[in-house]
Amino acid sequence: xxxxxxxxxxxxxxxxxxxxxxxxxxxxxxxxxxxxxxxxxxxxxxxxxxxxxxxxxxxxxxxxxxxxxxxxxxxxxxxxxxxxxxxxxxxxxxxxxxxxxxxxxxxxxxxxxxxxxxxxxxxxxxxxxxxxxxxxxxxxxxxxxxxxxxxxxxxxxxxxxxxxxxxxxxxxxxxxxxxxxxxxxxxxxxxxxxxxxxxxxxxxxxxxxxxxxxxxxxxxxxxxxxxxxxxxxxxxxxxxxxxxxxxxxxxxxxxxxxxxxxxxxxxxxxxxxxxxxxxxxxxxxxxxxxxxxxxxxxxxxxxxxxxxxxxxxxxxxxxxxxxxxxxxxxxxxxxxxxxxxxxxxxxxxxxxxxxxxxxxxxxxxxxxxxxxxxxxxxxxxxxxxxxxxxxxxxxxxxxxxxxxxxxxxxxxxxxxxxxxxxxxxxxxxxxxxxxxxxxxxxxxxxxxxxxxxxxxxxxxxxx
Length: 463
Ligand code: ATP
Ligand code: MG
Description:
Blueprint: H1 45-62, E1 66-67, E2 73-75, H2 76-83, H3 88-93, E3 96-98, E4 109-112, H4 117-126, E5 135-144, E6 156-165, H5 170-187, E7 192-198, H6 202-218, H7 225-233, H8 247-251, H9 262-277, E8 283-284, E9 296-304, E10 312-318, H10 322-325, E11 333-339, H11 340-349, E12 361-364, H12 371-383, E13 388-390, H13 403-412, E14 417-420, H14 423-427, E15 430-435, E16 443-446, H15 450-458
Helix pairs in contact: 1-5, 5-9
The structure holds adenosine-5'-triphosphate and magnesium ion.
Organism: Lampropedia aestuarii
GO molecular function: ATP binding; histidine-tRNA ligase activity
Enzyme class: ligase
C-alpha cells in the first residue's frame, strides 16, 4: 500500500471519471502541477545545464577534485548540528518530516538536504575517508529550501560544491578561491567580483561577540525583530541583515578584523598574497559573515551586479570545527558552493549561451518496411561517433509521413545530412546521402560499406 494511515486519499483523484462525463479532447484527469519553486528543466534549456556540468567536470579533473555523491535525505539532526540552530535554513527553510516507525517503533526525523557540506562531512567521517590524508571532493546536486520563490531563488535548486578536507594551510583557502575563479574564466563569465573576509578563530570571535552585543544593546531601539531575537543567540548574523533600515547600524558595529590575533591575520595575508600573484582582484568586506555558523578564518563570496538582489552566485569558506561538531575526528576543511540556476541566469544575461546540440544525420524512412535496415545502419554510425536521429511518426497507422514532411523535420533538427532510405536505394543495397546545410551533390553508399559513408560524413569540406 502506498498510502497508509498518515495520509487521507479521499480527495486525491486516482482514477478517471466515467467515460460518459469525459469530453472528447480533454483528459479525464485533472492536471497535476509541479510544486511551487521546483522547476522542470526541458530541452533546449537542459543542454545548457549539460554544457555547464561538462565544464565543471573538466575543471575539477584538472584541479584533482574527485566526485562525491551523498543521499538527498539525511537525519534532521545532521543539519541542526552542522548548520547551527539559529540559522535561516534550520529555523525556517528545511523540508523536514517524521518518517514512519520501523519495527522497533522508532521514527526518524528526516530532512531533504538544504546544502551539501554537512552530508559530505558526515560521509567522510563515517567512512574514515581522511585516514591517509586530506581529500579534494566536488558535487553537482539538487538542494531544497522552503524559501519564497522568486528570480534566482527556488525551493529545489542546484549547487556545484567543492570541499577540500584535511588541509589547514592558507594555500588551500586560496586554491579554493582560484578554483571558482577559474570556472568563471572557463565559462566566460564577466563582471563577477570577489569579496573576502576573515572570521578568525572561536576565541577571537568570542571577544568580538561581547563587544558586538554591548554595541547592539546600546542601540536596542534601532533593532528589528530578527535582530532582537539574534542579539544573544547569534549577534554576528545581525551584520548580515538585509533590512535597509539597519544597514547604517550594522556598518558602524565593531569589526571582527580588529579582534583577530597574529596567527589569523597571517593566514589571511597569505591567502591574499597567493591571489595577488595570479592577478585576481578582490575587496575585503568586513560584513561578510556568511549565513551558516560553521565557518572560521577565510570566508568569501562571488557576486554579480547583473542579478538584482539574488546577486551572490558562490559562497564558501573555511570550516575547521565542523567535522568534529558532527561527531567525526577533528580535521580542518574549506569549501564553497555555487548556485547553478544563478550562474545560468548570468550566462544568459551575458549572451554566453552555447549552440544547442544537433544531430549529424537525420534518417528519412519513407516506408516502415525500411526501418530494420535504417536502424541497423544508424546503430553502426553511432558506434563510430556520429550523432544520428531517426525519423519517427506520431501514429504508425498513418505511415511514416510524406517525403516532404520528413525533409522538413530533417531540416528543423539542425542535422548536417539526410540519409534517405528509399525503396529504390534499398533494393540496390544502398542509402542516399543528401547535404542539408551546403550544396553538395546527392550521393549513394552501399549499406555494407560503413567506412566509406563515414569518411564522406566526416570529410572536412562537409563541415
Ligand atoms: P542567499 O543569501 O542568496 O540566500 P545563501 O547564503 O543562503 O544565499 P549559500 O547557502 O551560501 O547561499 O549557497 C550557495 C549558493 O547557492 C548561493 O550563493 C546561491 O547562488 C545558491 N542558492 C542558495 N539558495 C538558493 C535558492 N533558494 N535558489 C537558488 N539558488 C540558491
Ligand atoms: Mg539563503
